[in-house]
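COURSE: Structural Biology Practicum
ASSIGNMENT: Worksheet 4, Part C
STUDENT ID: 0417
INSTRUCTIONS: Below are two proteins. For each, the amino acid sequence is given first, followed by its structure token string. Answer the questions at the end about the second protein only.

PROTEIN I
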Amino acid sequence: MAKIYVIGLGPGSIEDLTLGAINRIHNENKNFLRTENHPTIKYFKDNDILYKSFDYLYETKEEFQDVYETIVDSLVEEALKGENINYFVPGNPLVAERTVEILLEREEDIEIITGMSFIDPLIMSVKRDPINGLKIVDGTVFDFSMIDINTDMIITQVYNKRIISEIKLILSEIYGDEYNIFIVDSAGIKGQEKVNNTPIYSLDRFEDIGYLTSIYIPRIEKEKKNIFDFNDITNIMKRLRGEDGCQWDIKQTHSSLRKCIIEEAYEVVDAIDKGDIDSLMEELGDVLLQVIFHAEIAFDEGEFNIIDITTSLANKLIYRHPHIFLNEKVVNSEEVVYNWDRLKDLQRGFKTIGEKLDNISSLPSLMKGLKIQQVAAKVGFDWTDIKGALEKIEEEYNEVLEVIDSLEENWERQEEEIGDLFFSIVNLARFLKIDPEVAMNKSNNKFINRFKFMEKECLEQNVKLEDLTLEEMESLWSLAKKNKF
């Protein structure tokens, strides 16, 4: 196979063509262009240089990756004929050029003739120093996960209004409509360069959009900070636990925060049950705080760090979703759950059902009971129908009555029988596909709301609730029920 010379054409100005690029343009090799939508192609035409462009593939292929793979296949096929070829790309071949990446991945015989990238003239155009960080992303695949509010960003490949409109919607969600950014076309090309410093809401109103258009997003400066990301929170926690930090935060340990994470988790559940989205957002933040708090404590103690946590989580999600990441086929969601549980057991090294039962976490009792019964049911230790579950409740209820009627002051026996009754009721809930913890929480809230109604009625009647007879209280309770509390 002959050699493929990959030549960068620079950011757009003919003056920026390197001597190496000009020499390659004028040699006897066949010339191939990824695209002729670039100002330097005028140099080819002015000097009667023959070339073949791959622009037609952008019209015939549905996915960009297919375009790039086909270009590389065509170049390799041409090189296999035994003669060296030239392949010209905009900018620097090693910056935002997927076809060159593929050539390098395939380890083809290539030689790169560098060129100036579009980055240098773009930075000059917007007059920004990238010393604090610069992130470059592809606008055709841009999404929320690519945003870094603490770093300057360049979004390239924004050559039509559809792409820019989609980017605008994403940026507005994070930065807000009024945040000022730059939209730049033909950076560094004399007489053609256009630089617009504009709020995000007007991003898609510009007409001068093409293959040399880029968006430049300045990082949010500390003194103007009004939105924060994950890294900001970890940095805040570092300061709180630092040398001149908060004494309370510095003293905390994994054990001292144990009850906090339980409380925060319950408050998330409460917000969900109430359908209070604003509270849900806030409470999820409190749960996240607990994760970051424990990560910082662990880092200080040399145990683990936040990247260990995210890595462990990512590995777990990938391992337990082979139908997504390894293309294994599943029939339905039930099979997904089955595979998740099976892989979870393999990962934890469980060999018996007893080991699995022992490993059930210290959950609230109703949740733990449900989990135990679910594990047992999977190996067939279960009633054949709901009738068995109902009869078991009746049996346990009678045993509670029996221990009460015995007049024995056997507190342990009473506790045991009450526990068995609870366990059998949880089993009935499982048959009905009801989460007993959720059901109990709803009943708790129902009681609270009815009791508050009773207090309100007493207040309006200028009487004290505790002064009422039981019959009067029951009457108010019935009234609360009628009012759907």
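PROTEIN II
(use this one for the questions)
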Amino acid sequence: MKNTSTRRFRAATAAAALALLVAACGGGSDDEAAEGDGTYKWGINAELSGVTAYYGEGMEVGLESYVEEVNAAGGINGHEIELVTLDNGADASRTATNTTQLATAEEVSAIFGFVLSANCSAGTPVAERYKVPLACMSLAESNDYAFSLGADNTRAGSAMIAAAKEVSGQQNPRAALVNINTLTSIGFGDQVEEKAAAEGVELVTRQEIDLAASDSSTQIAKLVAARPDVVMMSNTGPGFLSVLKGLRSAKIDAPIIWVDGTGNLPSLAESTDEGVYALTVAEVVDPAKAEGAAAEFLKSVGSRMKSDNLLQVNGAYTVPAYMTARLFGAAMETCGYPCSGEDLRKELEKTSIELPGLASEFGYAEGDHYPYAQWHLYQITGEQVSHVESFESD
């Protein structure tokens, strides 16, 4: 578990030093001093250990970078943000306990994290009870207190079909569909199947691969036998590469579109296949060309980013976490100080911001807690990334 006491000690030390400085200079009235006291408090409840730690740590980098950026500029409404971080170890029970601790003992007004949708679901009843909004990387079910931080693949059906037509060069391509046996991946497959039927795209085969399977040769053989014009896929990075290798070994050169590009682009670094495409919900940040909010992101993460390689910069959900923190920050600025979790939730539902270079439109609405308006299609050839087209989200 991450140690949060050191962080609190540093915050307390800084506050004490400031108080001494004010006292030495005479300060202002007691009322003025009281008005300036206090911080906003946010929590992180993420998978910082275990098999999904890569994503939890990536989100932590994005969130910490934003908080440091804001605090260095004087905070929000003159108040700094204190960030309290807990590791849920990818365990649902521990996630619920952490959420309770953050909502009660720590009295945070927002909680970020939840790589796994099951953990978001475990934390949601607690958040609802204590009226604290959650920002979940994976969100399986809607709730007044649950907001999306990550991509929702079930909203990619129309974009995937449009992308299949684009990369195949055909209006009615023979398409193959691959998904793994997770709820979100199955949901994605169902949506694509429905959209394909509506758009006149022939689905020649749909294959489901067990997330824990070490061998997908049976499914690959069926894909090869179908001889598709294009392959549409939801899978892990290693799983995607395994299917790619199997298809190419069988001389199937159809383009392959991966819906899971958001946060996973580093998985494609070793591939030099020109037929590989990925969909992402955030625009890809190119360190050599970044402008606007993308340049601000790079400046903010600074030395926290282990590499300035384009694929690495766009990995591990660091970018979406930073974007979401900025959106929560904008809502908090309008909310004022103090801002309770309930007041922040209400403000979030009417907050939208522009992030040039990351997303042209980014915000929540009442009844729709999904902030991404578009899917962006990129061709990925090793470390070369080219934007192909952008499509509206379902």
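ANSWER KEY EXCERPT:
Q1: The two ends are 38 Å apart (CA to CA).
Q2: The domain at 153-260 is CATH 3.40.50.2300 (Rossmann fold).
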